Amino acid sequence: MAEHTTGHTSSAEMGCGTSEAVLEPVLETRRLTVTAGAETILRDVNLAVPARSVYGLIGPSGAGKSTLLKCLNRLVDLQPLLRVEGEVRFQGRSLRDGTLHPDDLRVRIGMLFQQPVVFPGSIQHNVVFGVRRQTGVRRRDLPGIAESALREAALWDEVKDRLRKPAATLSVGQQQRLSLARALASRPEVLLMDEPTSALDPRSTRAIEELVRELKERHTIVLVTHDLGQAQRVSDWLGCLCLQDGAGELLETACCAELLESPKCQAVADFLRQSGGRTEA
């Protein structure tokens, strides 16, 4: 096996025979490096995410997967001790070229966290919490926006008769779908998901995974997961971050089945073996 398969990976190189392969990536990083003082968290990460696909990020704890995700919509800027070098591009434009305000960027690139984020107030208030602050959104349109987002998050039928009830009365699984509905209400082009099922029971986990498979028809999704079974069930592409000399590096990226069954990088093969993944090559 090759020791390392780093270097820039274009969407064409990630082809898998799909028509998306000839398109420019929606999200792309070039030599992305993140440091905290003398500590390097991520080193020279080159990533290309094709449109309307699920790109899974796997790897051991501490390899920088969540940090990488936060770089993709500049949430990393809210951590002032971190220094970011290299480039992140969204639809061909650098995130730092001054043409897109970070708040506007985070509308277009939404994020779902490990734990559901529920604000005080009603279910409907939670769904439209962000979108009501966008310019051009009329107050009378909010109920329709809420309904559309709740339907897309497969939660409408469960809450349509109690939209004015406190959001905190929902189960944890419903709260996570409510958080997803809030992100979807802003009609993002990309959804970043940071272990969205880690706090959920198996039934709620299956519901979120089914949603992920449906949502990729309209959105591009980047999913961080520690569950290799989940990665296999929902991902079209996989990237594996591993620690190399104390920093996270993207050692291999490929079609999901190819990476799980025939990893080319020894460190990736070792990680999959230790995690129970298949390494037939």
CATH architecture term of the largest domain? 3-Layer(aba) Sandwich
Distance between the termini: 8 Å
Q: Which regions contain 5 or more consecutive residues with pLDDT less than 50?
A: 6-15, 17-22
Rough shape?
Answer: globular
Derived from helix and strand composition plus strand pairing, the structural class reads alpha/beta
Average pLDDT reading: 90
- How are the strands ordered across the major sheet? 6-7-8-3-9-10
The CATH class designation of the largest domain is: Alpha Beta
CATH homologous superfamily title of the largest domain: P-loop containing nucleotide triphosphate hydrolases
Number of discrete domains = 2
Order of helices and strands: EEEHEEHEHHHHEHEHEEHH
Number of β-strand runs? 10
Strand residue content:
15-25%
Might you state the CATH topology name of the largest domain? Rossmann fold
State the helix count: 10
Write the layout of secondary structure elements.
Blueprint: E1 27-36, E2 39-49, E3 54-58, H1 65-71, E4 82-90, E5 93-94, H2 102-108, E6 109-112, H3 123-127, H4 142-152, H5 156-159, H6 172-185, E7 190-194, H7 202-215, E8 220-224, H8 228-234, E9 237-244, E10 247-255, H9 256-261, H10 266-275
Parallel strand pairs: 3-8, 3-9, 6-7, 7-8
Antiparallel strand pairs: 1-2, 1-4, 4-5, 9-10
Helix pairs in contact: 4-6
Which characteristics define this entry?
alpha/beta, Rossmann fold, 2 domains
Structure overview:
The protein has 281 residues and is of the alpha/beta class. The protein folds into 2 domains: 1-114 and 194-205 and 224-281, P-loop containing nucleotide triphosphate hydrolases (Rossmann fold, 3-Layer(aba) Sandwich), CATH 3.40.50.300; 118-190, Rossmann fold (3-Layer(aba) Sandwich), CATH 3.40.50.300. It has 10 helices and 10 strands. The chain has helices at 65-71, 102-108, 123-127, 142-152, 156-159, 172-185, 202-215, 228-234, 256-261, 266-275, and strands at 27-36, 39-49, 54-58, 82-90, 93-94, 109-112, 190-194, 220-224, 237-244, 247-255. A hairpin with a 2-residue loop joins strand 4 and strand 5. The radius of gyration is 19 Å and the shape is globular.
